[in-house]
Design brief:
Blueprint lengths: L1 H21 L2 H7 L1 H7 L18 H13 L7 H5 L4 H13 L1
Length: 100
Amino acid sequence: MNNILRMSVVAILVLACTETALADAAAGKAKSAICMACHGMNGVSNNDIWPNLAGQKKGYLVNQIKAFRDGGRVDLMMAPMVKSLSDQDIDDLAEYYSKL
């Protein structure tokens, strides 16, 4: 029983550290320059047709950006913006915007 508890604690710590290591908000901020044209300098859009990104949940942002990139969601303006983003780029951007 003691070994199971110890292994569970180690697994939780590894997952927590992995999440932090995988997404980098500073890198996301650097990658966000192209997003600012529509979604605003701090992730708050000045136009009603473009959503605010600041404060959105990270998982939601990841899912939506990947859907645009992979064709699950179709938008003529978003498609060229996200087509070259790697999974790491998307994780970093989502981390950045979720922290605003």
